[in-house]
Amino acid sequence: MALLASLAGGLAAVGKLLGAIYPKMKSRIRFRSNLEKLNKEMGKLTNLGNAVKEQIEEAEKRRGQVAAAPAVTMWLEELEAINKEVNSIEAQVQQGNLCPTTPSCCCLGCTLGEKVSKSLTEVRRLIEAVKFFSNSMVVENCQLKIVEHIPGPSIIGQSTASKNLMKVMNLLNDDDDGASKIGVWGMGGVGKTTLVKNLNNKLQTTAAAASSSSIAAQPFSIILWVTVSKEFNLERVQTQLLNRLNLEIKAGESRESTASRLHERLQREKRFLLILDDVWEAIDLDYLGVPQEQPEFQLGNKVILTSRSLDVCRQMKTDIDVKVDVLSEEESWQLFTQNAGKVATLPHIEPIARKVSKECSGLPLAIIIVGASMRGKTTETLWNDALNALEMSVPSVKGIEDKVYKPLKWSYDSLFFQDMDIKSCFLYCSLYPEDFSIQVRELVQCWIAEGLVVVRKSYEDSMNRGIALVENLKDSCLLEDGIFNHTVKMHDVVRDVAIWIATSSKIDGCKSFVQSGIGLNQISEAELSKSLNRVSFMENKITRLPDCAIRCPKVSSLLLQGNLPLEIVPEGFLLGFPALRVLNLSETRIHTLPLSVIQLRKLKALLLQGCQNLKELPPLGTLHRLQVLDCSSTNLEALPEGMENLTDLRLLDLSETHHLRHIPYGIISQLSRLETIDMTNSFYKWGGKKPKEELEKAPIDELGCLNQLISLYINLNSSYLAFEDLSWIKRLKRFHFVIGHADEKLLVQQKYEEKMVNLGWVDFSGECYWVKQLLENASNLTLDHCRELEEIPAGLANECYCFVGLKSLTITDYYGKFLPARESGDDRFDLLPNLEELVLHEVWYLLSISQLARLLKLRLSTLKKISLSCCGRVKYLVSSSATLENLEEVTVSSCRVFAELFENASSSQSSEDLPEHATSSQTLVPSCIVPNLRIMKLKNLPHLTTLCGQLQSWQHLEILEVINCNQIKKLPFTTQNANAIKEIRGELQWWNDLEWDNKYTKSSLQQYFNPC
């Protein structure tokens, strides 16, 4: 048994030995076979490695900043390692001269056999691994470019665009201005995108310079460009950001999840700039995934957006908005020649080419397209043909319709204004001539008459709604400010687009025929058709109208104003326009209207302004729908018959009717819906009840019967006002009452004042109870050529009555002497406790405003503005004891003896000269007299030598104007007290001759000086 056990143990040991050496023997036995397989598989792997490297190199060429995916990088590293191992095996095989019969060779062969076997397994694994990353060979390089170049035209040579570029650059670099969001807005094709592309590329240049320098000049760690476009799509915008930031685009991912990833990624940026180009509606940046809450934006992150609409900028809460305007004529020419080439400057072409360039109206997009279309054309005929085509509103130059008109029409298509037909309102503006300044109120009146503005509770509410719509069109760059106040106009190209839309429109009620401002002498009947809705022949030289009924049954607006030679409107002409709602014959020489006007039963606005030959009108009693009757600046002597039947009349304009003498008794009181009566500078004077022989004239109490009346501008006859009850004036929102003679220029300036009373040649020594009734509701009072001003407060002071609503007082041409004020009532009494503005002109015997204040019992505690002119004896404004804490603006001109602003200012001593126990306030003008002064304008004051005391300080002064005040040798400024100054105006010689305490003060203020 022991022997068997011993044999069993020996066999087990032999089995273990054989198990250990068998794999080695197997490798040795299969060595040659495995080595051949290894060489073959290694060849395959090497080819795969080369293919992978080629794909990476190709991706780098196509996509720029990319790198091999991490798995690919590891695979290439493993390939390199196995390649070295196989090369090592080959070297050993070649150098070892292996012989299977020798023990040493046997041992070495076993070792190599194992290596070959292991290497073969590894090579096969690497070959198989390629399949798993064949579709994700490369990834974007994690080192992103700070800025990516955006191709676009240069603005070199365009001074306006360059200034805008520098303005935006400064806003980006200045973190103290609080401008986190910047809006760049303007009409389509004006160059907004070009501006921000140049901005982006300029920042790219800055980034490149910063990367090659040790100085960190680039203010942003990354700049992102996103094109939004009209059809806003949040996912598409988010995808642009994901691509820019090398973030994975996950199919089916929710907007919220994408926004969260973008937000997290952008938060890691030190400081980013996001440019959103072509924004048509407000975008929620939080929903997009852009950090904007505090404190991120405190770190200097910025957002720039471009839009055609200022309203979009406002909705996105931009901090500063930069408007991009059209090019100047010279800039337009430079851009035009860049695109048209040298042919545009040929002697026989240049005069025409300049006209062609001018027709593009400074719109860069149009200039580029037209210029490029004329490149290489050397014959005058072709250039003249292009000029003629551009002068037409319907495009015929190649590319204009597709590349200029249609993009601008997008702005039209996107118009929206609640409860309003804003598109038709916009098209209506094209009825006016090119470059014509349109009166806003007249335009809105036409819109209301056309039914384009929703009728509201009152006509004024509808007017206000229409004015808001005008502002909306301005914000959309489809209208712009005219050259006069309260006017708008259309850019030439925008007008052409509007006419193009209106003439080709299939929208019901919008088809227009526009022949305005083109020098027509007569109307071509053949061009008027039954399909038209609006017709404009305004601002021509038409001498006569067709004496027949041209059938235009749908026309609702007929504009004929501005045809100065036109004297007669034939009876038959108006019969062809039965649907008229607006008829405008203003600024013509017509003597009357044809009787056929009574057939226009749908007429709502009859505009006859400036028809200076118009002396009478036919009976208008059949025009029951008439809302606006404008007979201003005509020679009407009386109102037309049938006026009492115009029960829907809302606005009656009889201003500047210098021959109007008769308004029949009982007519006006029947116009119960009247809201506005304007009789500014009319000859007709309203008064109280008159003697029996004059009862046929309307008394003022008829106006008191008009419960809807809110605006009233009339002349009053003070002779019949003494006992009238004028309490109804309280319900007026605006009024302008003129008593006696008034300066017409002054009335025009004050036309838009809300509640104005103008008293001319009134003697206050008599009974003036009616004055109290007028003034207790007024905000502005003008006293022109009046007498006995000291009598005004005498009775009022006794009853402590004051006019709390009066905020402005103007006194002109007062020649009375200023006697000592009567001692009456409380010394603390203030006749005008809320007075903010005081204007004095030719008040001959006045010595100072302090004297006037004592006379009229004014404390001036709320005064903000003083204007003094042609007051020959005024020596100073106020005494040194006065305190005008709220005074912000002072203007003094042509006062020949005026010597100092504040009494004793010029005689002030320095603090070193004061007695030992005296304070500066004892001898100097206290610095608190006018602590909040912002604007000071001084002109033609030959005796004025100083502005203030030596220790005075005007910390808030922003504007100083000194003209022809040559005795002023020194300004009260130091480098410490001139922090608010924005502008100093005066003669250059005066500025150069000024004396300064030190040269640093002048050098610091030099930048604010503008010579006049």
TrEMBL record:
PANTHER family linked to this entry: NB-ARC DOMAIN-CONTAINING PROTEIN, NB-ARC DOMAIN-CONTAINING PROTEIN-RELATED
Any one biological process term the GO annotation gives: defense response to virus
Chain ranges of the NB-ARC domain: 164-341
Positions in coiled-coil regions: 35-92
Stretches assigned to the Disease resistance R13L4/SHOC-2-like LRR domain: 579-737
Keyword Disulfide bond listed: no
Lineage: Eukaryota, Viridiplantae, Streptophyta, Embryophyta, Tracheophyta
The keyword Iron belongs to this UniProt entry's keyword annotation: no
One annotated GO molecular function: ATP binding
InterPro entries for the chain: Apaf_helical, At4g27190-like_LRR, LRR_dom_sf, LRR_R13L4/SHOC2-like, NB-ARC, P-loop_NTPase, Plant_NBS-LRR, WH-like_DNA-bd_sf
Protein name: Uncharacterized protein
Domain Disease resistance protein At4g27190-like leucine-rich repeats: 858-975
Top-level division of the source organism's lineage: Eukaryota
Family that this chain belongs to: Belongs to the disease resistance NB-LRR family.
Disease resistance protein winged helix domain ranges (all copies): 431-498
Record keywords: ATP-binding, Coiled coil, Leucine-rich repeat, Nucleotide-binding, Plant defense, Repeat
A UniProt-annotated Pfam family: LRR_14
